[in-house]
Amino acid sequence: MLNIKGRLVNTVVNLASDEDKLLTRLGTIARIGKHLAPTAGHRKQLSQLQWAIENNHPAIELIRRIVRDTNRNTLQGFINLFANHAWEGAAMPEPTATANPI
Fold it and tell me: Smallest Cα–Cα separation from 29: which of 77, 72, 63, 75?
């Protein structure tokens, strides 16, 4: 499983030189990943990413700038951090039927 994550991180870093290709691949990852995601929170995050790419949301410009202006080693660390966060299942919590007042 970790090998898949490592390959994904390396692929994203290697695509960093071509921003358009990177966004196309991220869109593909989001489109396929939302069907494979283990939780509703993961599925929602991937759907939002896919929507943002398809609708050229301003957040996509942020991704372009980070990729374009960041040192390759720093970019690899940033992508690895993001992948670790997503891989460990740190998605939004499932909604509950009742709120717990404090």
Answer: 63
Which tokens hold the place of 39?
A: 């939780």
Structural tokens at position 16: 């960093």
Measured distance CA(98)–CA(79) in Å, rounded: 36
State the SS3 of 21-78.
HHHHHHHHHHHHHHHHCCCHHHHHHHHHHHHHHHCCCHHHHHHHHHHHHCCHHHHHHH
Per-residue pLDDT tens over the stretch 37-89: 778 888 888 899 899 999 999 988 988 888 888 888 888 888 888 777 766 65
Q: Please give the biggest Cα pair distance in the chain.
A: 49
Overall pTM > 0.70: no
Q: How many CA atoms lie within 13 A of 76 on its CB side?
A: 8
Return the structure tokens found at 29.
């990852």
Q: Residue 15 class from Cβ within 10 Å (0-12 exposed, 13-18 middle, 19+ buried)?
A: middle
